[in-house]
Design a protein that fits this description.
heterodimer; A: 316 residues; mainly alpha; MetI-like fold; 2 domains; 13 helices; globular; B: 337 residues; alpha/beta; eight-stranded mixed beta sheet; four-stranded antiparallel beta sheet; 32% helix; cell membrane (chain A); MetI-like_sf (chain A)
Chain lengths: 316, 337
């Protein structure tokens, strides 16, 4: 078990190092000089050069990369080119919104997907199965920003239950914050839930065909008991794999959805920083997203070993 | 339990099963009838697809929902055909148990073997977790699993095929069923293990006074392990009788074909195995009349007209053939072997 975790940790570290290299090199290769952007097109070449030196952009590539990594390790991400404030606190402010949003969206996704997937598998080829599966087909085809606008039309414009955008913050308690994140979370969740529901359904159906399901029935267990006590745990491996991958999709989705709902989250920060060529912010945000995705998938890998007793032995 | 031991435990009368296959509806079992008293053992022999496993699953009530079962199956006088699943659940694993062919896949890889053996006890006898665990260890010990107290918490992948089959036997016997159905219990095992497992089953059946239905395609296994046997072909029983009687003098050309097709020790190198010419008919597309008529060396027009009746050919010995006068003149069986 510990060997298994250790090996996965090493993979995780290697992935992070690789991601940091790619992020750094790609952003460095982008055309456009940050100093030039900040000073405007009319700035004198001397002034631009001075700012370039001040920002450390004249240093060789390797030196700048190592400086960035050193900063990441001690928690000093540097200052934003545009705002002049520390990138760390800039990101922290935005995470207060984006992390709860991601958690809410993932919770909605998993709840919808598991119930729909298990229900349809248990009622395979019956009316409920066909109906719910048609719905998921529609769900997969929906662009989330368009669905978000439909939600705003219904719940904000027509019913006036929730606000159409903006973030209430957490100062007045938890509910106003959650209310303002509800529509964005639903729009993020619907597509993911539709995909995950189909994965869950086919995983459960596959396990239902296994011999040990018949053995369990031969022992006198009812269909429902077999589903809960024998089938689900076996079906969870593919479902969790997809869940881990979907987390990455979900984070990418926040960039669009936070713009639709005018939410000051990490996605919007990335969007604005790209527009402003505030590359130091972009670089750190993208690194953070990469780290989140890698860590979530690491957790999924470790959970495999908890769910499936066979994995421990094979990997020891 | 055995108040009146001469009353049959299970009576199957004119059992029919229609399955909905991808090739359309197929009559997998037709007109199967037999009775089994307590402690009696019955063998079902036939090729794959002859309906022997479907017969077993219909006794267990475990056929797919789309299957249509006709006829009657009575356990101690109570009708099982058409029984609600919740009522059937009280019988399965409790009064009727089944051992399956594939020990490698018949156990849930995520649960410890102890929990899987304890499950029927907890369900049918309402044992506490501790009680069921103690009983599971005792059962695992009885089926010859080494060091059961320690290995009760191990997972199926930590056992060999033979050991896993011992575990499924322990599971099937947990609630001391009246009837044990063993569906090719040794087919997936090494030859060296097969004998051990069959001996174990035979010992347990005798020790607990259970009735047993043993399903096999192996005539040798049937000859050594059951008192009575039925040969199935194309969903019908083509021959039935006391095992010794059938082996002494086989009545049906199909049974004779199976017997001739068995490999023989001491055969000259390069000798080809005898085969039954032709292929097993599709259940969705059975010939009218005798199901074996397309492959039978003795076939006459009359065979194809209608399904032949069971003909009495010896003490308790029947063959579904109108040409037993010719087939039995050849004297195939232990008499000539």
């Amino acid at each position: 078990m510990s060997v298994f975790v250790l090996r996965r940790l090493l993979t995780l570290l290697a992935t992070l190092v690789g991601a940091s290299l790619i992020i750094f090199l790609v952003l460095d290769a982008l055309p456009g000089n940050a100093a030039q952007m900040l000073m405007g097109a009319d700035a004198s070449p001397d002034a631009v050069r001075a700012l370039t030196v001040k920002l450390g952009l004249d240093q060789p590539l390797a030196v700048r990369y190592l400086q960035w990594i050193k900063g990441l390790l001690v928690g000093d991400l540097g200052n934003s080119y545009v705002y002049g404030t520390p990138v760390g606190s800039l990101i922290a402010e935005r995470l207060v919104l984006t992390i709860p949003l991601a958690i809410m969206a993932m919770t909605i996704t998993v709840t919808l997907a598991l119930s729909a997937g298990i229900y349809t598998a248990a009622n395979h080829n019956k009316l409920g199965d066909v109906g719910v599966m048609s719905l998921t087909q529609v769900g997969i085809a929906l662009p989330n920003f368009w669905f978000a606008i439909l939600l705003v039309l219904l719940f904000s414009v027509r019913l006036q239950w929730l606000s159409a955008g903006g973030f209430a913050g957490w100062e007045d308690g938890i509910w106003p914050g959650i209310r303002s994140l509800l529509l964005p979370a639903i729009s993020l969740a619907v597509v993911q839930a539709a995909i995950l529901a189909r994965v869950t359904r086919s995983a459960v159906l596959e396990v239902l065909r296994e011999d040990f399901v018949r053995t369990a029935r031969a022992k006198g267990l009812g269909k429902r008991e077999v589903l809960w006590s024998h089938v689900l745990r076996n079906a969870m491996i593919p479902v969790m794999t997809v869940m881990g991958l979907q987390f990455a999709n979900l984070l990418a989705g926040t960039i669009v959805i936070e713009n639709v709902f005018y939410l000051p989250g990490l996605g919007r920060l990335i969007f604005q920083s790209i527009a402003n060529r505030d590359l130091i912010v972009v670089r750190n945000c993208v690194m953070l997203l990469a780290a989140m995705v890698v860590i979530v998938n690491f957790v999924v890998d470790v959970l495999y070993a908890f769910i499936d007793p066979r994995i421990k032995v094979h990997d020891l | 339990m055995a108040e009146c031991s001469n009353m049959p435990l299970i009576v199957v009368d004119n059992l029919g099963v229609r399955l909905n296959t991808s090739r359309g509806p197929a009559q997998a079992v037709r007109g199967v009838s037999f009775a089994l008293t307590r402690g009696e053992t019955l063998g079902l022999v036939g090729e794959s697809g002859c309906g022997k496993s479907v017969t077993a699953l219909s006794l267990m009530g475990l056929l797919p929902d789309s299957a249509v079962v006709t006829g009657s199956v009575k356990l101690d006088g109570d009708e099982l055909v058409g029984l609600a699943d919740s009522d059937y659940c009280r019988l399965r694993g409790n009064r009727i148990s089944m051992i399956f062919q594939e020990p490698m896949t018949a156990l849930n890889p995520m649960h410890t073997i102890g929990n899987q053996v304890a499950e029927p006890l907890r369900r049918h006898k309402s044992y506490s977790a501790a009680q069921a665990r103690r009983e599971a260890i005792a059962l695992l010990d009885r089926v010859g699993l080494p060091d059961p107290a320690r290995r009760v918490d191990a997972y199926p992948h930590q056992f060999s095929g033979g050991q896993r089959q011992r575990v499924t036997i322990a599971m099937a016997l947990a609630c001391e069923p009246d009837l044990l159905i063993a569906d090719e219990p040794t087919t997936a095992l090494d030859v060296t293990i097969q004998g051990q497992i069959l001996d174990l089953i035979a010992d347990l059946v005798e020790e607990r006074g259970m009735s047993m239905i043993l399903i096999s395609h192996d005539l040798g296994v049937i000859a050594e392990n059951v008192q009575r046997m039925m040969v199935m072909y194309g969903g019908t029983v083509v021959e039935s009788g006391p095992t010794d009687e059938v082996f002494r003098r086989m009545g049906h050309p199909y049974t004779q074909g199976l017997f001739r097709a068995r490999p023989k020790l001491g055969a000259r190198k390069g000798t080809r195995l005898r085969t039954i010419s032709g292929t097993v008919p599709e259940l969705a597309d059975l010939p009218s009349g005798c199901t074996f008529s397309d492959r039978c060396p003795l076939v006459i027009d009359q065979c194809r007209a209608a399904l032949p009746p069971m003909v009495d050919v010896g003490p308790g010995h029947f063959a579904r053939c109108i040409r037993t006068d010719v087939s039995m003149a050849e004297r195939v069986g232990a008499l000539t072997a």
